[in-house]
Amino acid sequence: MIAAFIDEIIMFCAGLWMASVGFGYLPFPGNPANRPPVVRHFKWMGPLLLAIAIVLAAAP
After folding, report:
1. Quick one: what percent of the chain has pLDDT higher than 90?
2. In this model, does residue 48 exceed pLDDT 80?
3. Residue 30 resides in a domain
4. At what angle do helices 42-58 and 2-22 cross, to 10 degrees?
5. Which domain holds residue 54?
6. For this UniProt entry, which segments traverse the membrane (predicted)?
7. Which of 33, 3, 21, 35 shows the shortest CA–CA distance to 47?
8. In this structure, is the dihedral angle defined by the CA atoms of residues 28, 30, 32 and 7, taken in order, positive or negative?
């Protein structure tokens, strides 16, 4: 049970990071020219990961 909460906290933090990078609040580390193409999908992947983490935390 504790491991599940830790997993959900990690997912929540990753979703926050992805959303903030996707919307431009934080810069992506490294050279912008060498950025992987998946970074442009962070705008929807971050909020989706946040929602999944919240739903899993609310489920018994």
Report:
1. 63
2. yes
3. no
4. 160
5. 1-25+37-58
6. 9-29, 41-59
7. 21
8. negative
Q: Report pTM.
A: 0.86
Neighbours of 47 (CB within 10 A): 16
DSSP string, the chain: -HHHHHHHHHHHHHHHHHHHHHTTSSPPSS-GGG--GGGGGHHHHHHHHHHHHHHHHH--
With a cut of 90, say whether residue 45 has pLDDT above it: yes
Whole-number Cα distances in Å, 21 to 24, 57, 60:
5, 24, 31
> Residue 55: what residue type?
V
- The mean pLDDT value for 40-52 works out to 95
- Number of domains making up the chain: 1
- Tell me, yes or no, whether 31 lies in a domain: no
